[in-house]
Amino acid sequence: MARKATKPARKAKQPAPSKKPAGKTAAKPTRAAGKEQPDRAATLILGTRKGTLILRRGKDGWKAEPLGHPGVSVSYAARDPRTGVIWSALEHGHWGPKLSRSRDCGRTWEDAPQIKYPEGARYIDPFTEISQNKSRYKAASLMKIWVLGFGAESQPGRIYAGTIPGGLFVSNDGGESFELNLPLWNHESRGGDLFAGDGTGKSFWSGGGLGINGEHAAGIHSLVVDPRNPKRLLVGVSCAGVVETTDDGRTWRGLNDGLRMDYGPDPTPPWGHDVHFMALCPAQPDHLWQQNHFGVFYSSSGAKKWKIVSKKGALVHFGFPVAVDERDGKTAWVVPGRADDQRMAVDGALCVARTEDGGRTWKALRKGLPQKNAWDVVFRHALDIAGDCLAFGSTTGNLYFSRNRGESWECVGSNFPPIHSVRFA
Amino acid sequence: MPVVHLARHLYRFFPALEGRQLRVQAATAAEVVRALEALQPGFAFYICDELGRLRRHVNMFVGDEHIHDRTALSDAMPPEAEVYIMQSLSGG
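^ inputs. structure came back:
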């Protein structure tokens, strides 16, 4: 089903980190009962324009560890809760995207086995001008590792990577090798099996993600594992929409009913949707949320049907990230932005908005956030939740933390590099 | 045998190469990359993508000349070539 895409890399040098006692806010319904986990809300991992930054919260507030990967742009960084390994997706300006990992809580880093598209992998770029005799068929090479995801406790060694152009790479050996999921790569929505021939010649995947060298192609940025059934995985694609497998990646189908796409003649096409980020409620997995280019969408039916829960012109509509309460599927947070022609805080006032009723009403949460001369934009992976704690970071280098569900915020720092991702660890 | 000189920046990722004279058996630019990969696994993916193309912001010189074929790296390598692999001055 999948082709080998990598070879083993240099051997790991560091032992696995020790576990810390669990904390009050570390509730994670998906984890195995009785297994000790660190207090997720006490550690933040940032992927920034200038490296990987780990911050720890102590009695005297947040303290940053020495910067990892200094000077290197990091598109995403997160800790595997099963192993404690921290993974960082690098975007070297000259040397290309690379996967890096730390087995000692960020003290040292090593190149991980690298993600590579298999020989013969092609994709169709619908925006290529074929009148200029350029082919719409492009040979795939890695532009960006956009997101990393970790399998369930019952899937030891399962790690996912979403990439540009539109690849889902899967590891079953703890990241020692990754393979491109071919059923999704060869999906009919993107022209069929282009290893075998030219397929249908038509792809509904386009856009979306900005890769290294400024190239655009569709990319996978959201990975949602169903905690009831880890063989069910939903991926968010910019631009295509939501795609689901229920058989561990053998077959895939679109779940885009109810989504809107305002930049085409048909506002409700089956494909072509610009999901900005998608997240699920771990305790109520049929409750999913997505911040989309064209509004906030909510599903209480496991993504079978989406419903728009924002209005054009209202505070909550445009933005990139969304966070969902770990227990209550009707509660979610977004960071509103002025629509796509500006992509910055609305009216220069930074706020987070929360709904507790499935998006019927939204409350603007502003306490502790700057209410004038703020032009921050918060990227799709730069808002996270752990229990009652939330944190978000902006491309202006500001990092905010709330311990009370967003009611009030404290500024952790204002001089960070542009922040691409924020994850509790 | 061609001698390869690397941008200092690359020693950050491949410190084992620093201070060594890199004399490689290679008749083409692609063979230079293969020889360096054999010395330091992972090196090729820093300067080329998985299609074997020289990365956009990497330059390879033979003497004073840029290589001509950045896609397949077919440029012939004179036996006593001095090869330079550098990051390009891009981004201002």
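The first helix of chain B runs from residue 8 to 11. Chain B touches chain A at residues 9-10, 13, 41-42, 45-47, 49-51, 53, 55-58, 87-88, 90-91 (CB under 8 Å).
thumbs up if we can close this ticket
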